[in-house]
Amino acid sequence: MNVPLANLAHTRSGDKGDTCNVGVIAYQLKDYPVLVREVTAERVKVFFGELVKGKVERYELPNLGALNFLLHEALGGGGTVSLRLDAQGKTLGAALLRMEIEARG
Amino acid sequence: MTRRLSYPGVEKTMIRIANGQGFWGDWLEAPVRLIEQGPIDYLVLDYLAEITMSILQKQREADPSLGYARDFPPLIGRIAKRMVERNVRVIANAGGVNPVSCAEAVRKAAPGIKVAVVLGDDVLGRIDEFLGKGYRMADMDTGLPLETIREKIQSANAYIGAFPLAEALSTGAQVVIAGRSTDTALALAPMVHHFGWSDTDWDKLAAGTIAGHIIECGAQCTGGNCQVDWQNIPNMADIGYPIVEAAPDSTFVVTKHPGAGGRVHSDTVKEQLLYELGDPKSYITPDCVADFTSIQLADSGPDRVRVSGIHGRPRPATLKLSISHANGWKATGTLVYSWPQALQKAQAADRIVRQRLEMLGLRFDEIYTEFLGVNACHGPLARPCADPPEVQLRMGVRGQDRKAVDRFTRELIPLVLNGPPGATGFGEGRPLVREIVAYWSALVPREEIRTSVEVLG
Questions:
Q1: Does the first or last residue of chain B, that is N or C, have fewer Cβ atoms within 10 Å of its Cβ?
Q2: How would you class B156 by CB atoms within 10 Å of its CB: exposed for 0-12, middle for 13-18, buried for 19 or more?
Q3: Contact yes or no for A25 and B270 at CB 8 A
Q4: Which of A58, A85, A96 to mutate to test the interface with B (most CBs of B within 10 A)?
Q5: pLDDT tens-digit profile of B55-112?
Q6: Residue extents of the structural domains in chain B
Q7: Residues of A in contact with B292 (CB under 8 A)
Q8: Which of B227, B278, B292 lies nearest to residue A61, judging by beta carbons?
Q9: Could you tell me the end-to-end alpha-carbon distance of chain A, in angstroms, rounded to an integer?
Q10: Is domain A2-77+88-102 given the CATH code 3.30.70 in the classification?
Q11: Could B274 and A25 be called an inter-chain contact, meaning their C-beta atoms sit closer than 8 Å?
Q12: ipTM score assigned to the predicted complex
């Protein structure tokens, strides 16, 4: 059964230059393996599409039930250069909550 | 309550370290409430973002007595009496590019207070010396050599760690002012000072660094900007800023004053741990390399999260420089279009402005348009909304030619009369032309950066 990521996890995002980081945190530790299986770097890259011009990297934090994604070239140049309203990517974490994942454990 | 001053190696009890400012512009009442609403030993205040240094550098060029966080001296004036009564010491990177003037202003605002300043992070005058020694100072993001921007550099500072701050605390100063210290060093320094930690005790230094990361953004770990159950976070109007109760063995509890609003829970702490994180196994600071995958969290009571298990590795042989440089001009303006066909009207206005800029022969590095209410935050991921009640057109340009950017700022308001119907929201006049000050990070050998401490009063 497919559900939005929002059912299983919360997110927080921020910036490092033109790279946006998105932390994805399982509400319950038991769902962490589902996140590891479903929310891959490749799928996140496809999900964001043209919003992320560079590569997507994923890091695992099993101790926190969390994944950390780095979205490269995602902020229109980043920092002071960017012309975007959300030049720091503060809202991109929320955008990822729409991603459909298979919830079976 | 009063607590006696402590010295390294003498007192080994728990200390309370509070963060009352996550950035310059954060809630002015937060540090006052932290000192009024309950016991704390150290109040740390983080004022500097990456681009703040260049803004401060410009202020100093205009007036040699400026170039620091101007909110800071009046704050100390406001809390000085309580600081003395409760023996609270303040550590802040409020000094910007002029920490000595900042300290003098603090002494004026709070005459009885002993102030120590940490110097040596400002390397603007040493760039050619570094280049002469063969340090390329290539940009850590792009790999370009520093020569690319040499003539446009506006400020250059080394990130300094906790040990110079701890040295300043050991003078007995009640206020310690630094320039570009790292955010995490502000919280680690009192632990190093109070517990007498060695500069090679990597696990302890990593724990203090992670404590610093958790509280460096103020209320972002106490329920602010938290997605989890946000509607029910208590009394956000009086949100409590974070307090770390640090133990000599480097375990710590994240909490807030009882009675203050907000929430401290493993969910709120996890969100902040993930904030602006890169490789979690290698969180690099001037003090150590902290491993975020070693962190163990436990909800140990109401609004209390216990943190333990943290491992660290040796600090790198280099220090990072934060260099700012001029990189052209930009301007962003808005107009609001109302129902019906608000989006179509805003899209037509966008096309018209682009056509008029083209007719003027103006060239930009980028022209960027967003439609607020439709796609500004999430772009094409946002769900389409049929005929929204209103849409804000937000249009920006950037380029190297200031005149071209200035000409753009005159092209939005005429649309109210000579474009699609129903435009409003132009009350603030033409958009401002702003200089783009871009950020460049580079490495130099750490032995090049020699800090010193100066005491006033």
A1: N
A2: buried
A3: yes
A4: A85
A5: 898 899 899 999 999 999 999 999 999 999 999 999 999 999 999 999 999 999 999 9
A6: 15-121+159-316, 324-440
A7: 61, 64
A8: B292
A9: 11
A10: yes
A11: yes
A12: 0.98
